[in-house]
Structures are given as structure tokens and as C-alpha cells.
Amino acid sequence: MLDVRSAAGQVFLLQIVIVVLLVLVAVVGMILQAARDAVERGRREAVIAAQTFANAPGTAAALRSRHPSAVLQPRAEAARKRAGVDFIVVLSTTGIRYTYPYPSEIGKKFVGTIEPALRGQTLVEQAGGPPLPSGRGTDVQAVVPVTDARGTVVGLVSAGLTVRNVAALWLPQLPIILGSGAAAVALAMTGTTLVSRRLRRHTHGLSPVELAQLYEHHDAVLHAVREGVLITDADGRLLLANDEARRLLGLPEDAQGRPVREVGLPEPVLRLLSSPEAVTDEVYRAGNRLLAVNKRPTYPRDGRGGSVVTLRDTTELAAVSGRAEVARERLELLYEAGMSVGTTLDVEHTAQELASVAAPQFADLVTVDLLDAVLRGWEPTAEGWRHLRRAAIGGARDMMPVYPLGELITFSVRGPQMRTLQEGRGLLVADLRQARGWREQDPERAQKALESGLRSLVTVPLRARDVALGVVNFYRTAGSPAFEPEDLAIAEELAVRAAVAIDNARRFTREHAMAVTLQRSLLPRGQPDQDALEVAWRYLPAEAGVGGDWFDVIPLPGARVALVMGDVVGRGLHAAATMGRLRTAVHNFAVLDLPVDEVLGNLDDLVVQMDNEEHAGGAADDHEGGGVTGATCLYAVYDPVAGVCTMARAGHPEPVVVRPDGTVGCAGVPASAPLGLGGYPFETAEVSLPEGSQLVLYTDGLVEDRAQDIDVGMERLRRALAGSGDRTPEETCQVVIDALKPSQSADDIALLTARTRTFPPSRVAEWEVPPDPALVPSVRKRCRQTLREWGLDEAAFATELIVSELVTNAIRYGSPVTVRLLRGRCLICEVSDGSGTSPRLRRAATTDEGGRGLFLVAQFAQRWGTRYTGRGKVIWAELVLHGGAPAASPLAPVDFLLDQFDPEQFDPGRLEPDQPEEDQPERDQSDGPAP
């Protein structure tokens, strides 16, 4: 309200000005009126006082006396005070004062007019004079004659008042005037506030300038829009018609303000305006135009009548909307292609997605032909353009005679497919009946296609990174409109999007195949020869890329077998290569025949070292996965003689045991930290496995994924293994894979099933040997008898020689001595003692006394070695059996071996020179008597 730029502020300011002016006018008028009243009062009082004194008895006589002033001065002052006037002056006929309030002024000339009074008239005038008791100022004075008895004027009397104190008459009324003005200002403010609030409600707080601009804008928009607007009142009078409504309906210039029936509207529109019903998007004809009409009441709430009608010309909109609909469908097609093509990294599936999206929305029949190299993941070359393989078909494939899926097609040089590959752009064939190049590709098939209704073709190359991958063909039949140039652009856009997805799938196929090939080459390719376990396995690489899952079956001395199952963190080529390094390391540790916990400890150190090398060398940024960061592993050694399996696991899922009766349970192996953390011990567990038990090893990809927890997966695994006691390992693997394999595997799956076997007592011979060299012949004799019982007489010579040499060394360097013979795929000779030293093979010189015993063992045995136990060591040797007899050694003839043996130089008590006995490694000294 205080803002002078607002309407309320301006009205309020105007009201203040009016009130102030009214107050000023009232004050001025009151002052003027008071002054006039004062003068009039002074005139009246002056006349009364003057006439009263002039007519008083003795006045005329006093004027004729010799000293009029002495007589009249006291009377005049007394009369003045009683009358309340400012002065009463008695004058001579010549105008000389006889009296005056101040005696000093007596005798002086009277200031004023006396002529009328000399003629007997009363005169009232305003004039100035000498000072008076009331002060200086304009006087209102009356001059009257004093007559004697004859009526002669003998003197004059003047009485008057000073008018300088007129304000005293109006000052008492000033508070009333000012209070009235203040009340008027307050009323003005209140009224302005109420009016301002109402205006703000109606104008939404807009200023007059903004209201004017708003009106101008609305008026400009109203007449600029391409939609007609009509507003009518309750009486059917046309209140408003914008320019577009005038144009659409042909209204005259003076139509506004006239009844709608008098402006020449078409009858349908006139009926619409006359009816009270609301209308939404109804089409009316007005001349040669089709108008879409909407009608709403102007005041829908208070029912005052009137309506607003909008008119839209849809004559040209039909054609435009048709083109817009086509454009919308094409955009939807491109959007759907962007969302649907390339959802997987499979080349053929991606090609089929393109065909399924384009048919039947864009074409009636779609075929996708790719180079063989693309389907296999290889780099495409121009040499393979003429030979493409049908990868996908979409649409009316059952109605048209097209090449089937997987068919290798040789395209004609003049055909549109070959031309589009050579030119690198799409080609449009509006009428296939005129396309000779397309017809000569396969005349018979082309004729059948034309008879089936095929009419139009758009063929577009599938190109990615400026390399052609194949072609996509879009066909339309006679029942659909032929392709137009605009359709070619859509086809090329579809091909571009699909080509990128197909190329990504091709490159993934190549890399996935390389990784799978590498990983499969690092996994076992066949089952090793061993007697302890019947083994079967499955390996399923992940769809998104291979990981680091691995397993192994490693034969160990003493007919034992080591089972390994591991998982390297990460995926890709780096994980596969790391898995290969760990598998090689496990093989090396297994050859050393270390305990299972030591094997895992050495693997842990190796993973830590590999991880440190990755981070120190900065190689983590150069390959997928970046660093080893850890691995899990389960290492188990099964002894078929004792029927015991020793296991330890480093962060790996616990193995499952299926007993011969079909019961399923966990092996009870304690959990230890994963590999790569360093410094943590690994706990072992020995599990007794009856013959026919199945040991199931697996990686977490089998029992855990994003959709289920590992506990749920373990329960499913137990249910799948239930009742598998009489199944073969192959059958068990297949049952587990069928039950637990996910539809889309996000992680590798490795599964290993091993059914246990045991050595029967009839195929095991074991006895202790007292520590006496003289008993070596008896050991040879017992070996010969055992081999005769087993039907291995032909192996007696080599076996006796090996056992004799090993027992001689064992008696010399350790006790107690135990000999064990195992008959399986090969003949195993084991000699154990309590010594911790290991024999070593060396080539003895001609002058050496010993050093030839282990050489003989190495020549006759297929392989030999040493393993350590908690009570000492075991020296073992294996002889390969062929048809029940040991294979002949091709390394050296018997004569050569006998030449190396010199019995004269044999001295069993002699040690290596300059070495104390406790520091001597056990060496070959058993040049004892030959069998």
C-alpha cells in the first residue's frame, strides 16, 4: 500500500492529498469566517459603544465647556472598560481628540474619516491609529455625531476594537478539524487496504503495469495462436473471437458483440454454440474444413451461463499425423532395437534379436547372413564375402522359400548382397521382379519367393570398425507398401546398432574361446593310471568369461592318489594363467610327497609371492582381474591300503562324502584361511572311507550364485547326491550337474567325484626285518615266495635285487625296517625305516667301494623315490607289469650292470671319508651278495 508504483499506493496517496487539501481549505475558510465575524462583531460593538457614549447625558454639555477633556476623559475611560472596547475617543468637530486611553495622544488629530459623522451619519471603518492598550493593529472603529437639543452636531464620538486577535476565535475549532482529517485519513487507509487486498486476490498480486502487460500478452497470444477461440455470454452474444476463429469461420469484422445467429456461422457450429452441453474433440465441417471443436462453460460453478469454444483445423493434420505416426513407429523401432539387440554376447543370438525386432514391425521377412569367421570369433576378411552363413531368420520364414539356418550361401557378384558389401552402403530394390542380380543368385528359389508374394528388398552391410561382418536383408511382401528411401535410412541405423553388438559378441567369443582353450589345456586331459580311485569330473566355464577353477588327480607313491580342487579369485586369461601356475606348483609339491598341510602352506607362500610380484611390477593395470588377491584350495591324499583320506582345505567349500549305503554327509574337514593371506596354519583331518564311498569335490560356483545362498546350494547338493551309493562317478557327476547347474552361469563350475577302492589283503605283503645284514637273503627269499604266489615269477629277479639293495641300506642307516609289496597296475616295493636321511643317486667311479646299489634300483624300476612319515622315511620303487611280468628295462643290459658291480670292493662298514656318521646322508652302500 505504501508503494507509490502500485494502484493501492497511488489511490492511498491521492486520498491523503485530498484529505490534507480539505483540512487546509477548512482551516482557511474558518480563519476567513472568523476574521469576518470578528470585524462584524467589532463594527457592531463599536457602533453601540460610540452611540451609547454620544447619547449619554452630559456629553454634549461637556463638549461646550471650557475644559472638555477634563470632564470627558474619566468618563470615556470608565465607559471603555465597561463596554469592553479598546478605545472611546471624543472629538471636536474639527477632529481634535478630547479623550484617549493614553493622555499623551489628547489634542492630536484623529486618524479616520469624520465627514459623514459631521453630517449626522454613523460611519464604521477600519483604520489604524496610535497605540492602544490592546496593542497595535488594524482597528474597527465607529464614528457617531454628538448633537445638542437642537440637533446641532457639537462633537463626535469614536469607539473601536483592534482585530489583530482574530485567531482566538478559530483556534478552539482547530482540533475538531484536525481530528476529522485524521479520521478521514484512517478511513482512507482502511478502505485502501481492503480494496488492495481484494485487488490482489483478483489480480494475483500483479501491478497495474504487469496487468497491462499481461493483457497485452494475452491479447497477442490470443490472436497469434493457430487455434480459434470464441466466447459467448448467456444470451448467445459473441463476446470475443480471435483472428484464427475469424479466419476458420469467415466471420465479419463487426461480429464481436452481435448474437451468434446473426454472424453467419455454419449450422453445425451454430447448434453447438446454442446447446449447453460440453464438447470434447468433436469434428465439425465448416465449408471445406474439418474443425476439431472443444466447448466448456465460462462459469462452471455459479451457473451464470456463457461458454468458451476452441476450434482447431484438422484438415492438414490428418496427413501430418500420418507422417508423424510413421516417424513415431520408426523411433519406437530404433528404441526397441537398442534395448533388445545385444542383450547377450552370443553372435547367433544377437543376430536373431535383430531379425526378431525388425520383423514384422519394419519388414515382413528378415534374414541375417554372417561370415564364418564372425560366427567362430575370428577376424573377418574380405576373402570370405562370397560365402556367408545364414545366422538368423525373422518374420514370414514359413511362407517364403529361404535358405535355412546354418546354410552356407555363395552370393552372386552382381547380387545386391555382394554389392552392398563392396560399396559399404545399403541398397534399395523397390521391385524384386526387376532385380536380375538377385534373381540369378538362385533362379528357382527366387521364382518361388516371387510367387509367394515377395516384392521389395533393402539389404544393408553389417559393419563395425570399418570391417564387414555380413549383411542383413529386409523383405516386404505384396501386402505391404514397398520400401522407400526413408526406409533405407532406418535399415542402415538398425544395421549399425546390430553390427556393434555382433562385433562385441564376436570378440567376446574369440576371447572366451581363447580363455577356455587355455584353461582346458591346463586342466587334466585324461585320467592317470592308478588303482585307488574311480574318478569322473565336469568343468563348466562361466558364460561371462572363464575363471580360475581347477582340479587335478595326481598318483602318488604307495598306490596313493592326491585329489586337488581350487579356485583362483578373478576371471579371464589372467585367472586361467594363475590357475596353471598353481596346478604346476601342486604337482611339484606332490612329487616331494609332502604332508597335505605343508602342501597348502607352500601354496600359500607362492600365492603371496605372486601377489607381491603383481603389485610391485605394476602389472595389475595391464590385464583383467589385476593381481591374484587370493585363492582357495582343497588338497586330499587317499591311501587305498589303509582306506583313509587325509584332507585340508584353505577357504574352499567342504567336500561331501557319499557312503556305500547312499547316506550323504560332510567330510568334517576344518576350515582354514584362503591362500594368499600368509602366516596362517592349515588343519588336517583323516577320514576313513570304506570301499565304494564317493568323495565329491566342487567349487562354489556349483552351490552359490546371486539368486541363492550357499546353504541353500549345499542342501540341494545333498538332495542330488542322496541315494548315489550304487551310481558310478560319471552318473553322479551328471546327476549333480543336471540338478544344480544354473540357467545362466555367472561363475565357473568344477566338480570331481571319486569312488574309493581298497587293496585286498591278498595283494599286500608286509613284514618287519630285524636290523641284521645277514638276514638280507631271507628277505629276498620271502619276496620270491610272495611273487610266486601272485604269479609274478618273471618279476622275481628285479624285485629281489631292488628289495635287497633297499633293505641293505635301511639296515645300515636306520631301524626298525619294514618291507611291503603291493600288487596293482604295477608292482610296488617299499622299505621303511626310522631314519630321516634320504639316499641319493650318484655315479660311482671305478675305484669307489660303493654307490652302485641305487643305480641298479633306478635301472630296474620304472621309478623310485623317498617319502617321509612321522616315524621316518619310506624308499619305494615301482615295476611296471605287462601281462603279469615286469617290463624289460631298455636302459642297460644286465652285463653292463654286472660290470658296474665289484664285490671285491664291498666294505659295508666304510663311510665317506672325512664325514662323521651322524652327518652322512644315507648313500648307496648295499653292494651285498646278489640274489
Tell me what you see in this structure.
There is one protein chain. The chain is α+β, with helices and mostly antiparallel strands. The chain is 38% helix and 23% strand. It has 25 helices and 32 strands. It has a 6-stranded antiparallel sheet with strand order 12-11-10-15-14-13, sandwiched between helices. Strands 17, 18, 19, 20, 23 and 24 form a 6-stranded mixed sheet that branches. Strands 27, 28, 29, 30, 31 and 32 form a 6-stranded antiparallel sheet that branches. Helix 10 (317-340) runs parallel beside helix 16 (485-522). The longest helix has 48 residues, at 7-54. The protein is elongated and about 210 Å long. Residues 214-254 form the PAS domain.
The end-to-end distance, rounded to whole angstroms, is 133 Å
Largest sheet: 6 strands, antiparallel
Helix tally equals: 25
Q: What is the overall shape?
A: elongated
Strand fraction: 15-25%
Strand order of the largest sheet: 12-11-10-15-14-13
Mean of pLDDT: 80
Percent in helix: 25-40%
Number of strands: 32
- From the helix content, strand content and strand pairing, which structural class follows? alpha+beta
Unreliable parts: 888-898, 900-931
Task: Using the CA coordinates, give the radius of gyration.
Answer: 65 Å
Domain PAS: 214-254
Region (Disordered): 902-931
Subcellular location: Cell membrane
Transmembrane segments: 12-35
